[in-house]
Amino acid sequence: MSYPGYPPSGGYPAFPGYPPTGQESVYPPAGQYSYPAVPGGYPPAGGGTYPAAPPSAGYPGTAGYPAPGGYPAPGSYPGAPQAGGMPPYPGAPTGPGFGVPPAGPGFGGYPQPPAQSYAGGGPAQIPVGYPGGQAPSPMPGPPAAMVQCTQGTIQAAPNFDAGRDAEILRKAMKGFGTDEQAIINVVANRSNDQRQKIKAAFKTMYGKDLIKDLKSELSGNVEELILALFMPSTYYDAWSLRHAMKGAGTQERVLIEILCTRTNQEIREIVNCYKSEFGRDIEQDIRADTSGHFERLLISMCQGNRDENQTVDYQKAQEDAQRLYQAGEGKLGTDESCFNMVLASRSFPQLKATVEAYSRIANRDLLSSIDREFSGNVERGLKTIVQCALNRPAFFAERLYYSMKGAGTDDSTLIRIIVTRSEIDLVQIKQMFTKMYQKTLATMIASDTSGDYRRLLLAIVGQ
After folding, report:
1. At a CB cut-off of 8 Å and minimum separation 6, what does 415 contact?
2. 359-406: per-residue pLDDT in tens?
3. What value, to the nearest 5°, has the Cα angle with vertex 98 and ends 96 and 104?
4. Residue 48 main-chain phi, psi, to 5 deg
5. 275 φ/ψ sector (left φ>0, alpha ψ -120 to 50, else beta)
6. 151, 240, 396, 452: which could join 180 in a potential S-S bond, CB 3.0 to 4.6 Å?
């Protein structure tokens, strides 16, 4: 299906007010809003087994990848079941790991990771089939062998010395000219938590604010990228949301990208940070800048109350699928509140099972139905939730592709996704990017950017 005008061509405003006036000496406090060094590694769900697949089940027929630069046709979003029924899922691949198609002929379409870590816990369960067309009873999580954790391209540096790094940055900016490569070598190879410690050490050693010094030495996209890397992760999300709603116009796609993809804990921390750092209530700002069903969807997302039980109830999935069908395709008009209720409250593994059940009931996939029943920002928001339930790395791979496709580059989207996913699942995003677009993420970045900006992006992404 098409994604018109997605993502926006506009970018963020400059980095005004960072750090806020009067808070230079204390902003932001070292370690505040820090994430664990290796995010994304959630504890696995309880043990269990999958129902056996029917003997006749096999891999989907050869479909091939889309043409270079093309976009998946309706019903072929990575991980989405085909209309008319749920295809049997291949077993967990062995060998290279995530995103690598199993060996053998006949495997086509987009590869689907065996499991992914989602909000608050273990991986999504992938039912192998529904024997006799009946939904099985609720089942426990997959066995430990099926757990597939996501991985960032940036890891905490071993033998880390904040003072030594602060000294390197000071020398890179001292005197005439700036040694950008020395700055890149440090920031691209330290975790966000380590960068906060470098900022604190820099101020202790030299009595100067590292962020102010960097802003005076850098400019353009490389400045925006480096400043984003030095923001605490939660603050960067809150800052992005604030600037998406500040001033004339609203960058709705930024609101969708952040609020519809983060975990419960991340959303609650973002909401609290937004209040403490900007003195504003995010719900009030959303109500002032959006309206209708899109406003209600974002308010639902802001609660950070999505069910995080990783056990899939297939009977409930069947009931929810029927409810969604009756609220959309099965009636004249659309009951938007029903879609909001199901997609905003169910866990991502539960939603995945619901999507699969829906394709059998409606004879088309849920993404296609949303495309037919909704429009505008609420359509994009609902589809983002479904896409994340099916394959979160594929969603971000798509966003990165369209940030660089065509004339010009949406640098703010490119920077935001590279920075925010660099310690979470950028490895999987890169793999999905290659499978969806027949080119590597690094290749597209190299052809779309230049100079120190390109060197720093490639250092984060890796080859």
Report:
1. 221, 224, 225, 228
2. 999 999 999 999 999 999 999 999 999 999 999 999 999 999 999 998
3. 65
4. 165, 180
5. alpha
6. 452
